[in-house]
């Protein structure tokens, strides 16, 4: 095996080991992302004879105060953004929020926070005050009050926060997947399949634009997390970027921006001549880019985080090698390469694709057990149903890939039929690539859906606690009191 291939392979093994060690070293509490309100004081639905001066929230996981906002809607329908929340005596999973003096009538207190994986979560506690408010002697934080809709004794049920639509989030994730897969795919193809890929003009242009797009998309996604923290539109949430980076997802997006720009400078402005230095300079940040996927999704935020991070990096690396490699073979290698270079390169890609498929299947099984508990749970939630659809589409893709492999092994060796077979091979490769794009789209949808394993059975939950994930929440109307 050439030394130019041994070097990135060795770096791959070392980097995966480093990622595993880092994931094991991180505190276990950070790994749990999907927070749930267990109880509150006052409790939801309570009728109080004395107005409380504070509300105490008890969550099942630690709450980053930087990402938590609390909104009060009083009996008159006035909306106030409350500040001054602190962790309680029970630890970081308990939050105490001071309340202003309250008048008799129905009151709603809405909470909103962003989990470590970037998923916004919201809920509310409603209670009724049946007597006059007590006099509060301690000064309360300044609140910003705005009118809210009132209908008799009922109160406005919206939380008043901006939420980026699920479609916009899906588009951002899908575009990011494609850009990073193009980067990693071009590099892997150049290392293992076709040495000329790195010097091809069109592929260099794609690589450069994909790096810039990755940085730009990462910045927009970071603003979306900041928007989830602030409750304002992304373009008005620059001041919440620091709070956004306290989450795994926000930090992953920030790191992604730095990595993409660094790789762009190294690849197109550093002019590295020595091949080993070149591969060291691009392999490590390339693998780190794949790692940002793991930390921005469910791989780091659910159970078995060390296993999740490593398998996620391997899964997406294999997908990039296969799907991006298909694009290069179909659009560049077959139509623009002479037969003496084409046949060996296509055969090398066939072997790389076979290894990629094995890695995809193996890591996919691990992630299924880790995120959904059992294949029998696949149809119990949106995440499992997306995964089931991904498996079905992947099976179709594997059938086409197997036909392509037979074509490569049995037909390209005969120079008399080579030209005739190339057209059919290219059409099959393009079809396989198109199906791969569908799989990437399904994967982007899976990230915004909570896995079955994220819902802990037997744990008490607040009826109004909702994982809004990536859409506007519509909380059902409560009965008029």
Strand % is 5-15%
Write down the oligomeric state.
single chain
- Rg from Cα: 26 Å
Question: Element order, helices and strands?
Answer: HEEEEEEEEEEEEHHHHHHHHHHE
Report on the structure:
With 481 residues, the protein is of the alpha+beta class. It folds into 2 domains: 315 residues, no CATH class; 125 residues, Immunoglobulin-like, CATH 2.60.40.1220. 54% of the residues lie in helices and 13% in strands. Strands 2, 4, 5, 8, 9, 10 and 13 form a 7-stranded mixed β-sheet that branches. Strands 1-3-7-6 form a 4-stranded antiparallel β-sheet, with no helix packed on it. The longest helix is centred in the C-terminal third of the chain and has 34 residues. It is elongated, with a radius of gyration of 26 Å. The termini are far apart. The N terminus and C terminus are likely disordered.
Any chance you could write out the topology, listing elements then pairs?
Layout (H helix, E strand, L loop, with lengths): L2 H23 L11 E5 L5 E2 L5 E6 L9 E5 L4 E5 L3 E3 L2 E8 L6 E10 L5 E10 L14 E4 L2 E2 L2 E2 L10 H27 L8 H30 L10 H4 L3 H22 L5 H21 L2 H4 L3 H32 L2 H34 L9 H29 L4 H33 L18 E2 L14
Helix pairs in contact: 1-6, 1-8, 2-3, 2-6, 2-8, 2-11, 3-5, 5-6, 6-8, 8-9, 8-11, 9-10, 10-11
Describe, in short, the structure shown.
This protein has helices spanning 3-25, 166-192, 201-230, 241-244, 248-269, 275-295, 298-301, 305-336, 339-372, 382-410, 415-447, and strands at residues 37-41, 47-48, 54-59, 69-73, 78-82, 86-88, 91-98, 105-114, 120-129, 144-147, 150-151, 154-155, 466-467.
